[in-house]
Design a protein that fits this description.
Layout (H helix, E strand, L loop, with lengths): L1 H7 L7 H20 L10 H15 L9 H18 L6 H22 L5 H27 L6 H4 E2 L2 E2 L6 H7 L1 H12 L5 H18 L2 H21 L3 H26 L2 H10 L13 H12 L22 H31 L2 E2 L3 H17 L9 H14 L4 E2 L10 H4 L2
Antiparallel strand pairs: 1-2, 3-4
């Protein structure tokens, strides 16, 4: 009768099924978009092709850009404007043009991820987490198969005797795998995942990260895990939760040590580990080494407002800068370099404030910021300005910071059920 009354009054009933369908389509496209982020052997990669589709699907129902995201968009725009100005003398060089175009594209993905957090933030974060875990398993499994040359895949999925998987560089694969590992660790600490299931889910990405023999990847994981554990401990609502975190952290460390000892029992793994575990690598040493080149570049860059030009650091020194902050001034000029430093500082303010915000997505915020902050620090050691997952993290942290929130002092009572929904 109520349906007939609504029909007779000229008011159509709400189309709930259509709304749910739109949400499902958006989540599906978002999952596929991130699930393909781990396939980077070819350029443009599938990730690049999926972005226009994701943008189109979300734009159908509107994408809202909060005023709180203006600093992110503005600083990224200034950073890339600096890159465009630096490119002008080298417009006839295809690699330089491609480099600048990729920078602009990645800027758009960061703003996209930030903007879509305005609606269904927790649901979309869960979708992204699942898609990323799938991508990490695919990339990690490829790296493991390649490292042990199973099926003759060593030539395709290794580089310099190290697992590179579906990436061109093991030093990029390693840091890429940190986020899903940290999500699993956080799930164990917060009871979202059981200990056995959690370790099973992280097993392939963790082993693959180890086999990349990437010192930066190892350091990123250790720093991220320590920060995530400390933050989870600080925001816990009870002493029981804190005890659980302490106990499970100790258990997790013990299991990791056992797994490491087992891995090092194989001679081919131990020999590479002994070389890569050293902080004193030959290419880092001396005036012409990595760090020496960075120091020599600074006074030169102070004399060139437009920098050296995109990808032109290598024409002045033996190799690329391997420092994202030096590279910001070298490839993007003074405008880009200053904008990048300002973006980094602003992101640190936003991120540290975010992790102490009580909300259903606080668990996500802790994991995302732990990895992003470690990656910001890792930028001192490697060029991170074209890492797709860096812009994903950047956008999500800023997007969550723009949501309405209420801050609660650390240690205050958490709303009922918040611990279970935090991730």
């Amino acid at each position: 009768m109520s349906a007939l009354a609504q029909a007779g009054s000229g008011h159509a009933p709400p189309r709930r099924g259509l709304a749910i369908s739109y949400a499902a389509i958006k989540r599906g496209v978002l999952w596929l978009f991130v699930a393909l982020s781990g396939f980077a052997l070819i350029e443009p990669s599938p990730y690049e092709f999926l972005f226009p589709l994701a943008l189109f699907v979300f734009a159908l129902t509107g994408i809202r850009l909060s005023q709180k995201l203006i600093p992110l968009a503005l600083l990224l725009l200034l950073y890339n404007l600096g890159g465009v100005f630096a490119l002008i003398p080298w417009m006839d060089e295809t690699p330089s043009v491609r480099f600048t175009a990729v920078s602009v594209y990645l800027m758009l993905t960061a703003i996209f991820f930030a903007a879509i957090m305005a609606e269904d933030a927790t649901g979309r974060l869960d979708t992204l987490r699942k898609g990323y875990l799938f991508a990490a398993w695919c990339a990690g499994l490829a790296g493991i198969l390649g490292y042990f040359n199973i099926g003759g895949l060593g030539g395709a999925f290794t580089l310099y005797g190290r697992a590179s998987g579906t990436f061109k560089d093991p030093n990029v694969l390693g840091p890429y795998l940190v986020l899903p590992i940290l999500y699993c660790l956080h799930g164990i600490l917060t009871r979202r995942l059981g200990l056995i299931r959690g370790f099973l889910l992280m097993s392939v990405p963790l082993l693959a990260l180890f086999l990349t023999f990437s010192r930066g990847g190892w350091g990123n994981l250790v720093a991220s895990a320590m920060l995530m554990t400390a933050l989870s401990f600080l925001v816990s609502a009870s002493a029981a939760q804190r005890r659980r975190i302490v106990v499970l952290t100790a258990v997790s460390l013990g299991l990791v040590v056992v797994a490491l000892l087992v891995a090092l029992s194989f001679e081919n793994i131990r020999s590479v580990f002994e070389v890569r575990a050293s902080l004193d690598q030959s290419y880092d040493q001396g005036v012409t080494g990595r760090f020496g080149s960075q120091l020599r570049a600074i006074p030169m860059l102070l004399d060139v407002p437009n920098g050296f030009g995109p990808l032109r650091f290598r024409f002045f020194f033996p190799e690329d800068p391997h420092n994202v902050y030096v590279n910001a001034f070298a490839s993007y000029g003074w405008l880009g370099g200053i904008a990048y430093l300002a973006l980094t500082a602003a992101t640190c303010v936003v991120g540290w404030r975010l992790v102490f915000t009580r909300a259903p997505w606080q668990g996500h915020a802790i994991v995302l910021w732990s990895v992003l902050f470690a990656t910001i620090l890792q930028g001192i050691q490697i060029d991170t300005d074209h890492w797709r997952h860096f812009y994903l993290l950047l956008g999500l942290v800023w997007g969550l910071s723009a949501l309405p929130r209420r801050t609660v002092p650390v240690g205050a009572a958490r709303p009922q059920g918040a611990l279970r929904t935090a991730t």
